[in-house]
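Is this the right way to post structure tokens for a design question? Let me know if I should format differently. Anyway, here goes:
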């Protein structure tokens, strides 16, 4: 039975594990930065189509020990690559390592590419071409100490690229991280949701798609469609079922606002392109002045964080004002603020009821939960 690894944003491994269990995956085991699992190819298709948390689905094709670069070359050359994809498919090799004693990972990448091409040349007297931008087949090499693991990427483009958010702002949050934050917040369809600093609308789009049962991968293509074992009939039936299970678009209790008109335009265009513009209410407003759109609900925001002194000064001024605004206008709500700025803990004037460590790429962040009651929430 095929074995897979699904990388995800660090901090969301337990959520991804639960999703894979629900989808019927076997031998589910969390690791730092992802989840190992096994299952048939129908499961692989379904996880690619339905997972909002995974970044990719990697098929493990080889795991072995090595001592030298020549050992790596030989291990790759010995694999029957022509059984998995055609020589006409373009390839790309990605290499990552932990505690690797080899001198150059770039050389390892070149070595693996040469071994794959040499295997094809030995089999059919031709070799596949390399395409580093839009390859048909991505080969992932992972080295830890003296262990070599080889994967074929069944996803292609990263799964957080849903194909619906074409217009972005300066620092957008990735879709799978946004989906994970909504899960950690305990948000469910039907619960009022507000993002008062919505930027290009990532939280809003994720929430609207979840509410309408729109699968995240329904508008895009996947690398498994290039593999020789691809079952086109089964995949077509899966997509047709997913489309038939969607709910019609309708107004939802999902609200977004932003101080900047350009950001709001980007959010509206993304919602419009995704067929969701009638589902979400948008307006231009200052986060410090906006009022709660319902008696209770969940507020979620990806707070800005600065690196230059002027930006840090502005944030230091924002945090206490934000805390006051939440107390005055959002009693009965629960706020989830995502930030990399640790200064917020002292300056917010509210005590978080929960702090969840998450990573936005390589940046360590916190998801802070505030259960808002009117008046001060600080210990007396």
């Amino acid at each position: 039975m095929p074995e897979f690894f699904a990388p995800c944003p660090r901090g969301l491994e337990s959520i991804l594990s639960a999703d894979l269990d629900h989808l019927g995956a076997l031998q589910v085991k969390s690791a730092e930065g992802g989840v190992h699992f096994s299952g048939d190819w129908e499961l692989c298709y379904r996880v690619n189509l339905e997972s909002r948390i995974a970044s990719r689905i990697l098929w493990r094709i080889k795991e072995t020990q090595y001592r030298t670069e020549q050992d790596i070359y030989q291990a790759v050359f010995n694999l029957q690559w022509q059984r998995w994809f055609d020589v006409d498919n373009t390839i790309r090799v990605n290499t990552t390592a932990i505690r690797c004693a080899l001198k150059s990972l770039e050389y390892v990448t070149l070595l693996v590419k040469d071994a794959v091409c040499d295997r094809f040349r030995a089999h059919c007297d031709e070799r596949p071409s390399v395409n580093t931008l839009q390859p048909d087949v991505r080969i992932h090499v992972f080295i830890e100490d003296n262990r070599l693991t080889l994967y074929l990427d069944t996803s292609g483009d990263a799964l957080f690229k849903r194909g619906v958010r074409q217009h972005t702002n300066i620092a957008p949050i990735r879709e799978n991280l946004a989906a994970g934050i909504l899960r950690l917040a305990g948000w469910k369809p039907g619960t009022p949701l507000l993002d008062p600093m919505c930027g290009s609308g990532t939280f809003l789009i994720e929430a609207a798609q979840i509410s309408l049962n729109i699968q995240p991968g329904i508008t895009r293509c996947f690398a498994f469609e290039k593999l020789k074992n691809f079952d086109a009939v089964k995949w077509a039936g899966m997509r047709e079922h997913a489309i038939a299970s969607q709910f019609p678009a309708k107004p939802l209790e999902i609200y977004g606002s932003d101080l900047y008109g350009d950001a709001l335009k980007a959010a509206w265009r993304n919602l419009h392109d995704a067929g969701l513009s009638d589902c979400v209410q948008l307006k231009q407003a200052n986060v410090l002045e906006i009022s709660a759109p319902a008696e209770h609900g969940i507020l979620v925001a990806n707070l800005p964080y600065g690196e230059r002194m002027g930006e840090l000064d502005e944030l230091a001024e924002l945090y206490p004002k934000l805390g006051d605004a939440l107390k005055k206008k959002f009693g009965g709500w629960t706020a989830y603020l995502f930030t990399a700025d640790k200064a917020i803990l002292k300056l917010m004037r509210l005590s978080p009821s929960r702090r969840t460590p998450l990573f936005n790429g390589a940046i360590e962040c916190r998801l802070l939960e505030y259960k808002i009651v009117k008046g001060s929430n600080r210990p007396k």
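Format looks fine. Someone answered above. Worth noting: The chain has two domains: 3-153, 175-212+247-371. Residues 309-329 form the longest helix (21 residues).
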